[in-house]
Amino acid sequence: EAQVTQNPRYLITVTGKKLTVTCSQNMNHEYMSWYRQDPGLGLRQIYYSMNVEVTDKGDVPEGYKVSRKEKRNFPLILESPSPNQTSLYFCASSSTPTGLGTDTQYFGPGTRLTVL
Amino acid sequence: AQTVTQSQPEMSVQEAETVTLSCTYDTSENNYYLFWYKQPPSRQMILVIRQEAYKQQNATENRFSVNFQKAAKSFSLKISDSQLGDTAMYFCASLTNFGNEKLTFGTGTRLTIIP
Fold first, then answer.
1. Which residues lie below 8 Å from residue A10, measured CB to CB, with a gap of 6+?
2. Which residue of A42, A58, A110 is in closest CB contact with B102?
3. Which chain B residue is nearest to residue A99, measuring alpha carbons?
4. Which of A10, A89, B6, B36 fits as disulfide partner to B106, beta carbons 3.0 to 4.6 Å?
5. Of B33, B46, B107, the CB nearest to A41
6. Which tens digit of pLDDT belongs to each residue from B1-18?
7. Along chain A (116 residues), what's the average pLDDT of each consecutive run of 10 residues?
């Protein structure tokens, strides 16, 4: 089954304690993104990756890091989490740029993060 | 900057009726894509329908259809014969920069289908 998986699904942590949210896709997709969803703001892109070792900032990258060492994995790293990073996080992937094909972005199930 | 506006925070409709969700967007690009995503209580983001800006014909997927007005930059979603399973948050989104695959989302409309 084609899917994007995220772990953990729920996480409560404290300010300053480093954490990683994993994202994995089994569709051999090149493009992957991280979004955060906040009430009244919709979803906003944090980082994206066009392929292995190629990443770039989205709209709200401050306080986050990513890496893309393997095509299937795109972890999101919060090295020193703060309460303003409490949010719902989504990973997404697509096989080709949306403008060049009929593919679209597939979203993971979401990770609810609370930073105390 | 690209913006997507959904002016209806909440809507409700009786089961089996038709409902229309509004969305307007702003872009200076000539080629772009528009989407409606559904987020049920499970929080999963599910693609409902997509529209390529260069296509004049409105997209349709079973009970879901759009009214795409390019000049007015309007992209509304019509749900016909609404069902209880349609209860969800609906997000309108645009994609104008094909280099970063960034979807720009609206703030969402919470739709409730009343039995």
1. A111, A112
2. A58
3. B98
4. B6
5. B107
6. 689 999 999 999 999 999
7. 92 97 94 93 92 92 97 97 97 73 78 97
